[in-house]
Design brief:
The complex is a heterodimer.
Chain A: E1 4-10, E2 13-19, E3 27-32, E4 36-43, E5 51-57, E6 63-67, E7 75-76, E8 96-102, E9 111-116, E10 119-123, E11 131-132, H1 134-148, E12 157-162, E13 170-174, E14 178-182, E15 190-191, E16 212-217, E17 224-229, E18 232-237, E19 244-245, E20 258-264, E21 267-275, E22 293-296, E23 304-306, E24 324-326, E25 334-337, E26 343-346, E27 354-357, E28 363-370
Antiparallel strand pairs in A: 1-2, 1-28, 2-3, 4-5, 5-6, 6-7, 8-9, 9-10, 10-11, 12-13, 13-14, 14-15, 16-17, 17-18, 18-19, 20-21, 21-22, 22-23, 24-25, 25-26, 26-27
Chain B: E1 2-6, E2 20-24, H1 28-38, H2 42-46, E3 57-61, E4 64-66, E5 78-83
Parallel strand pairs in B: 1-5
Antiparallel strand pairs in B: 1-2, 3-4, 3-5
The chains are: A mainly beta, B alpha+beta.
Chain lengths: 371, 88
């Protein structure tokens, strides 16, 4: 494996954590855009050099920056993601560029962006100019708003998954909305939420309004999707359309609430979650202050706790939906960032954990890039 | 007709570190359009896609608050752009 860089987005800027194939020595660089929230930073796996970053300073509007030299120089998008101008004072404006996703391998300059409040945007020039995906923003979203009503803070659009077999087939998810599928490059969408619990909705069998926290599609088995939801952990095998709650197999005292979900890139049956406390008033901390990852090696039939090296107690942080990832190494490396600014890693697929960086700002996202 | 514009540190990356700028226009919106021509990207950071002033930005013309893009300016006026204090 080549050089690895962890791309860390935080509440106060972006950082890069560099290592070599041995993954023993780590070197932190940055900050980039100090003082600005960076919700997501992604290296294009198609060229392994283009870096895109979504940022918003405390005072100013959101934008996207691009670098082709690992952050030595940044170029701002000429036309950042924005909704069509409207005279309607209730019309949403983009507040956060929350999620960035490279397009299909056959479309090398295509990127997608998900925003807060929810919106789906597409760039066909490597992230320099962005257009609305009209079928989503203009057709689906207005209907959805009528069903779910306003959400404080605005739910994010995230988990943009492109089918590696077909650039026109994609899934996106939004919190307080659900998961949606398009087979025509975003022109038309259908809800894909059957089987998902929604304890906060009056209709337990509602078509939409669910709260996916993170959805992932397996690159080698694209008919297999996993989901960490506000109400449990799920698996879906297409062409089926009913999710199966695999989180029922988690220990009862831990539960199956959390934000991130990570897939093993070479094994569709292996995945990780990072549970958090979702009881009563939703503390969103590690359960009982004892953080742990949980791994399943059988597609969610069973789970094992992985906390060797992690704090044994009074660790009241958690891991956000973009802040847990895997590299491509053998054995697989895993990395997560905490809401308290620590970056933890494992080079044995979660059996042991080491703290690789600390005292960073609250970590929003971590992506492992192979150069 | 030109006005003097003073911008905050948050916008220095667009203005080569300059705080004091010169722009033309007879309304706040026109002045911001002209600033954007001279310093591309700066307008969208303070005005959203619907033409609304972003929540943490304030404008003052000759030290008086300006809350609409239609607010008039005259030759020699001073436009102050402020990143409003908030949060922690």
């Amino acid at each position: 494996m080549d050089q690895i860089v962890l791309l860390i987005g935080t509440r106060k800027g972006a950082f890069l954590l560099h290592t070599d194939a041995a993954r023993r020595e780590w070197r932190l660089t940055g900050p980039h855009f100090l003082g600005s929230a960076v919700h997501h930073m992604v290296l294009d796996p198609r060229d392994r050099r283009t870096l895109l970053l979504g940022t918003r300073p405390g005072h100013l509007g959101p934008t996207v920056f691009r670098s082709t030299d690992l952050g030595e120089h940044w170029q701002e998008a000429t036309k950042p993601p924005a909704f069509a101008p409207s005279a309607d004072t209730r019309a949403p404006s983009v507040d956060i560029v929350f999620w960035l996703a490279p397009g299909h391998a056959a479309e090398p300059d295509v990127w997608y962006a998900g925003t807060v409040p929810p919106g789906l945007f597409r760039s066909e020039d490597g992230g320099d100019t962005w257009q609305e995906v009209a079928g989503f923003n203009h057709e689906l979203l207005p209907n959805l708003r009528e069903v779910i009503g306003p959400i404080p803070g605005g739910p994010p659009l995230h988990s943009i998954c492109i089918d590696p077999r077909d650039a026109r087939h994609m899934y996106v998810s939004l919190s307080s909305g659900g998961t949606f599928e398009s087979t025509d490059a975003g022109a038309n969408w259908r809800a894909l939420n059957r089987g998902i619990a929604a304890d906060f909705l009056p209709d337990p069998d509602a078509d939409v309004g669910h709260d996916p926290h993170r959805v992932a599609l397996h690159p080698l088995a694209p008919d297999r999707l996993y989901q960490q939801n506000h109400c449990g952990i799920y698996r879906l095998d297409r062409p089926g359309d009913r999710w199966q709650r695999i989180g029922r197999a988690m220990p009862a005292e831990i539960g199956d609430i959390g934000f991130p979900i990570v897939l093993h890139p070479r094994d569709p049956d292996t995945l990780w979650v990072f549970p958090m406390d979702g009881t009563e008033n939703w503390p969103r901390t590690s359960p009982d202050g004892k953080p742990a990852a949980y791994r399943s090696r059988d597609g969610g039939e069973s789970w094992e706790r992985q906390d060797n090296g992690l704090p044994r107690g009074h660790a009241w942080w958690t891991v956000k939906r973009q802040a847990f990832c895997a590299d491509a190494g053998k054995p697989l490396g895993l990395y997560f960032g905490t809401t308290c600014g620590e970056l933890w890693g494992s080079h044995d697929e979660g059996d042991t954990w080491l703290c690789l960086a600390e005292h960073l700002p609250e970590i929003f996202s971590v992506e492992a890039a192979t150069l | 007709m030109s006005v003097r514009a003073v911008v905050p540190g948050q916008l220095f990356s667009y203005t080569d570190g300059q705080s004091r700028l010169v722009a033309e226009g007879t309304t706040l919106g026109a002045v911001l359009d002209d600033l954007d021509r001279r310093h591309p990207g700066v307008r969208f950071r303070v005005i959203d896609e619907h033409g609304a002033i972003r929540p943490h930005v304030r404008f003052f013309i000759n030290r008086q608050p300006a809350v609409a893009l239609s607010h008039p300016l005259a030759d020699g006026d001073e436009l102050l752009v402020v990143g409003a204090l908030s949060g922690g």
